[in-house]
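Hey L., structure's done. Input below.
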Amino acid sequence: MSVSLETLAAGLADGDLVPYLGPGALAGAVDPQTGEPIPADSDSLILAMNNGQPMSLRLMWEFPRAAMNVELKRGRGAIHRFLNTTYAERTWTRSPLHDWLAHIQPPYVIDINRDLQLQDSYAGRPHTLIRGIARTGGTDYRFRIHAYDGACYTEVDQAAVDPTLPILFKPMGSPRPDATYIASDADYVDYLTELMGGFAIPGFVKALRTGKQYVFLGLRLLRDTERMVLSDMTYGAGTPTGWALIPEPTDKERRFCDKRGIEILQADIDDLLAVGAQ
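Output:
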C-alpha cells in the first residue's frame, strides 16, 4: 500500500484531497421505520423503480438502461417522479460517511448520487451547488449553478460565483432546490457528449481542478457510464489521479485504474472512518 488510510483521511480533512462519492457513500442510510436501505446503486435503484421486481437481464445491467425503458413507456416525468419520491419525500437516516463529511466539510466534493445527504451536510454553511442538466434548450451548457446563503438557494451565473465558498458538484442532479436529473440513457448521451466537449464543467471548476487528487469512495468501476463520468470529471488531475477504496477489486477495475493513474486500496469506507475519527 503506497499510501495509508491515515494519510488519505488527513488529506480529506485538510481539503488537500477531493472526495468523489459513489453509491457506497450512502451505506448505512436506511428508512427509520422499516430499516430498508436507501436505493443508491444500480440494482437497488432498478428494483425500487420497478416496485421491487427485477427487470429483464438486459435492463438490469445498468440503471440508465432500465430508466430509458421506463421513459419510453411512461415518459421522462415518470423517472423524475420516482427520484423525487425516493430522495425528496422519503426520510432516511444519515450515512456514517456523510456525518464525517459534515464534520470536516471539504472545500470541493463530487457526488454522483442523486440524494440530498451531501447538501444537508452543508445546510448551515454558504456554498455553491453545481448540478448537471441534459436535453435542455436555451443554453450551451449542461450545468446549473445555485448559490446557497445559509438559508436558501439562488440560481447564479458562473461569473457570479464566490470562489471562497465550498463547491458541491452533483453531476447526476438532485431534488433541491428544484428537481434536475441525469438518469436515462438519453440523458447520459447528451450529458456525456457535452462533458467531453467541456460544456458541462463551469470555467471556475476547470481552473480549480488542475492538479487535484481524488479519493474515490463507495464507487465500483465496472460500468462504462461511471468510468466515463469519472474520466471527464477528473480531467487535469495530479499524479497519481487519486486513490480508490475497493475491498475486492476485479481485474477490469484494476486495468481501468491503472490506465487512469488511480491507485487501489483494498479497504472500505468503514476503514477510512475508523482512522478519520482518531
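The radius of gyration is 18 Å. The chain has a mean pLDDT of 96.

-- N.
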